[in-house]
Amino acid sequence: MLNTLRNRTFRHLFAAQLVALLGTGLATVALGLLAWQLAGADAGLVLGTALAIKMIAYVTLAPIAAALAERLPRRAFLVTLDLIRAGVVLVLPFVTEVWQVYVLIFLLQAASAGFTPAFQATIPEVLPETRDYTNALSLMRLTEDLEQLASPMLAAALLTVVSFPVLFGGTVAGFVLSALLVVTVVLPVRAPAEAGQFRAAATRGLRIYLATPRLRGLMVMELAVAAAGAMVYVNTVVLVQARLGLGGAQVALAFAAFGAGSMLAAVLLPRVLEHRADRSVMLAGAGLMVAGVAVTPLVPVIGALMALWAVIGFGFSLTQTPIGRILNRSARPEDRPAVFAAQFALSHAGWLVTYPLAGWLGSAIGLTQAALGLAAVGALAMAAVFWLWPAFDPAELAHEHADLPPDHPHLRGGNGQAHRHAFVIDGLHPGWPRRTA
Prior knowledge:
437 residues; 14 helices; 2 strands
């Protein structure tokens, strides 16, 4: 896995992601303390609203940002968004009203909605070999899990000697350093954007996504993941403190167990994916998550909850790590940023639904019913995956071009208007061919 770091460009991009993640983790802690300072007992409501704003920004702006990115130099685009994020966070310690927090959070997440898909779409161009790219995905997944453990610990250590607004300074430093690291690399040359209207470019990723069976299945699988994940992220504190009668330290241990399970899967996945199809691995992961949430009401003690959360975390990494491979094989290089942006938007749409659902079910009818309800949503989504994403999913597909003349350049070397090649949705292939015997 670490061999990928020998590639200088990836090494610098990976370091940029790492410092930005650490900064974001510090901001998460600081934002909670800022919400308490501004709203007191209503801090939870402020944070919940901020989280909803984050998801809305991701869902609505990612495709638009991807279309804009096509028309701008990629490196400059990434650096500018890093600096915008740094500038927004720099203002956060000085706010005095809750509405100001909401505005700044929207601006911050709008910049992230542009940065993250563009960054993700760059990695397969930097590491074109499948094995290297798979290792990079696992390494990046591992880093995200480590960040969830390291950032709170770093924040806690800093808060022993400084006040919480200083944590925002750490976030600013993370984004600025990320920008500097991106500046130091030369990114692969990208094909120029195709001429056309901005609206068509903004929706191209969604059109490709919805016309590709494996991506439609991936979209529904993300709903299953969000249903199970929302139970963990939203209701862990209630499970530990209200049901088990324990304290904040045990809440942290439960989340740490989830992260540990996810990290273990990230370490094992490169070898697993050499022998198993992405679809089967991801379905197994989603199944572990949904089954784990379904048995949550049976958990009697914190040790059992930690073990269960580790299993769910393991399943989470199984579903999330291969996503880049799926997107990479489902679009032309020039269309990948748009498809990554579509994935970013559609996956967060699932969380936008399940986050409030988990909270409402838990408070309105109880944690047992919330767990069973979310597990039911996940199970229905998984059933839909089997229907939408067929197990027979070869890279090359036989198809015909009845609308093209026999001498069209695309048909060279084929058998008239019928031929076979690695199939993706594009201008010449607007729809998925029917399966033939």
